[in-house]
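REVIEWER CHECKLIST
Item 1: Sequence provided? yes
Item 2: Single chain? yes
Item 3: Sequence as submitted:
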Amino acid sequence: MDIATRRMTADDLNALKGIDAAPTLNSTADRTADRIEGLASFLGQKAGAGLVAYALATDAMPELLLGYIIGFSVNQDAEIIDLVVRSDYRRQGIGRQLIKGFCDAFGDHVTYLEVARKNRPAYQLYLNMGFVEYGNRKAYYQTANGRDDAILMRKYGSISPDIKLKS
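Item 4: Structure as written out by the authors:
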């Protein structure tokens, strides 16, 4: 399967409805519509930045949206807000490809993100891609079982300022 990534456009938003994000406390079709509307608004902002990954069309299969990453970029610093990969295509390097593309395109100095403490696969992916912890937000996420902390992470890019990382 050949995979291509490119900048997200408003034309991609309808295809995002087929992507199943991790279940949340209030996952419903209405929340999916709200999420798409929010992404559209976010992309329309000057600092909005996003990439999508598609499986390229073949004779046996039409083009298929596999995932997306969205965030913002200001003065060569970036923040990843959301990373979603179709559940049936996870653990195949698509998330890694999206993160690398986002950092290369938008995070010349630093790329920031946060991840739920209990989301160990995502946390491990970020560590493997060179992100390091720099803080946390206690009880930040509401979950079905209560609350979860947000781990704050960052990765310095190719034009890093003269700041030493503390791990």
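Item 5: Key structural point noted by reviewer: The CA atoms of residues 17 and 64 lie 12 Å apart.
Item 6: Recommendation: ____
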